[in-house]
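Handout, section B. The chain below has 204 residues.
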Amino acid sequence: MPSYASARELMDAVMARYRALPDYSDRGFVTARRRGRDHVIVFETAYEASGDFRFTFDRPHPYRPLRHMVTRFVVGRRGGEAYLDRRASDGDVSTQVEPDFNLAIAGATGTSYGAAHTIAGLLFPEVTGWSFRELKRPRLRSPQLIDGVWCHRITGLQHRARMVIHVGVEDLLIRRIADRRPGSEERRLDVRVSAPLSEAPRPS
């Protein structure tokens, strides 16, 4: 297991790791606190060596008595064409073809509480927006066990929000991102890849 002299060195290694992956998948959830209430969405991510990408998430109605009404969103790229699908609980389906992949991801980022952007921004250089490398005042903390996986722990600031990011010690893949101020949390479970860690380039 390599050691890292600083949080920046680890963050560079994480970025290189994602950019080297031929395949990736996960499932997870986001808990976002808004106006004193927790809102939860569940999601799945899939990426293939062809460059195809799919992020699927289910968002319940924000009004508590209507939480049983769930809208499914699917954002991604297939065969070079970017798209954003919306499938409402009443059966209404709409598909929006986007002129570029970055716009498709941006269109789903807010609705997914940022989760649509997390892995897409790491895998694809053309996806803009807040970057993992832009974390201010990063610090490398002691490892923690997250969902049975030992993880490096990085703390820092995203704008004024204090962030805590957990990255797998063995595979350098993100398992948890938490924003302490509003109390939001993103968890990545059942993370699967095809590229062994030894294939990921290390920063010089």
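Note. The chain has one domain: 7-199. Compare this with the example in section A.
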